[in-house]
Amino acid sequence: MTDSNRRDVLKSSALASGAAATKSGVSSMISENESVVDVAGPTPVYEIYALKYAGPFTSKLAMVYWNDGWNEDIDRNYYIWVIKGKGENIIVDTGTGVTLAKEKHLKGYVNPVDVLAQIGVNGSNVSKVILTHIHFDHVGGLEMFPRAFPKATYYVQQKEFDFWTKNPIAKRRPFFGITDAEANKTVAAMEGSNKLKIINGDKKIMAGIELLLAPGHTIGLQAVAVNTAKGTSIVASDCAHIARSFKDDNPSCLITDMVGWMESYDKLRAKASSLDVIFPGHDVMMLQNYPKVAEDITRLV
After folding, report:
1. Is residue 168 reached through a cis peptide bond, with omega within 30 degrees of 0 on the bond before it?
2. CA distance 265 to 63
3. Sheet hosting strand 88-92, strand order edge to edge
């Protein structure tokens, strides 16, 4: 049966079963890619929040803007993100774990779980955590997250998971120093359980939320396309460290695959409603240029 025919069957079944079927769980008849909202009404509109949990850190511009700005300093922050819908909180990335943050003496570090609590995000209302990639500042919070968010299912790309948990090259110096070995073990231990969904390429995980494979910075980085009041917005994470990279077509120096990175830029720019709603991984502007809703938390859209 084709996808279009299957969708027609699902729509017919949902309509025929009426209100009783809705009460008994129409969602059970619908795949991950076809939520109740797809069948019954318009796509939900979400808000996106940036939550700073550490920083600012100062480096040369050239670190986050390929081979340009060796004599210019730039600040960057460490963030996680929250996608908020009606009754749905989706966390994007987990930040750095408290143990590694202490070892690295991370400036301005606050436990990401505590930062999330400032906007009412807690274990009772989080069902999904998206891991954009497996670097320490994006995955290390798995030290705290399984206990803090016991209902959460984690989403990671197949290529990213396989590289960091199974490829011996990931244990060599250029890679090992930018990940969190303990967090990697936690991810690996979830394989085969209902706590981890391993995604192969682009995938819509619910109405208005799509994961986009966007390699370059890492083997299998994924961005998140979100339906918002400003159209399709994208939490790009480290597909760019600063926003100007998307405008100037120039990534950072932290590269696994330069050609793949350029192709990912093309892909995300084509998907987003505008360049202004593609949000990078570490730009201080996310904290400075958007409405503040709590300490070190802004609403991006």
Report:
1. no
2. 18
3. 196-199, 153-157, 126-130, 88-92, 73-85, 47-60, 297-299, 292-294
* Helices within the chain (DSSP H only): 3-25, 36-40, 61-64, 98-104, 112-117, 136-139, 145-148, 158-166, 173-176, 181-189, 244-248, 258-271, 285-288
CA nearest to 282, candidates 98, 80, 141, 82: 80
Residue whose token pair is 């025919």? 5
All CATH 3.60.15.10 domain ranges of the chain, comma separated, are 43-299
Q: Distance (Å, rounded) from C-alpha 286 to C-alpha 298?
A: 7
φ, ψ for residue 158, nearest 5 deg? -55, -50
Higher pLDDT among residues 177 and 32, named by residue? 177
For 41, the 3-state DSSP assignment is coil
92 pLDDT higher than 60: yes
- Reported as half-sphere exposure (CB side, CA atoms, 13 A), residue 282 has a value of 26
**CATH number for the domain running over 43-299:** 3.60.15.10
Q: Each residue of 258-292: pLDDT tens digit?
A: 999 999 999 999 999 999 999 999 999 999 999 99
How long a stretch of residues is the chain?
A: 301
Tokens of 46: 């979400």
pTM higher than 0.90: no
| Cα 228 from Cα 243, distance rounded (Å) | 19
Better-predicted residue by pLDDT, 31 or 234: 234
φ, ψ dihedrals at 259, nearest 5°: -65, -45
Q: Which of 110, 135, 106, 130 is nearest to 48 (CA)?
A: 130
Query: Rounded to a whole number, what is the distance in angstroms from the first to the last CA of the chain?
Result: 38
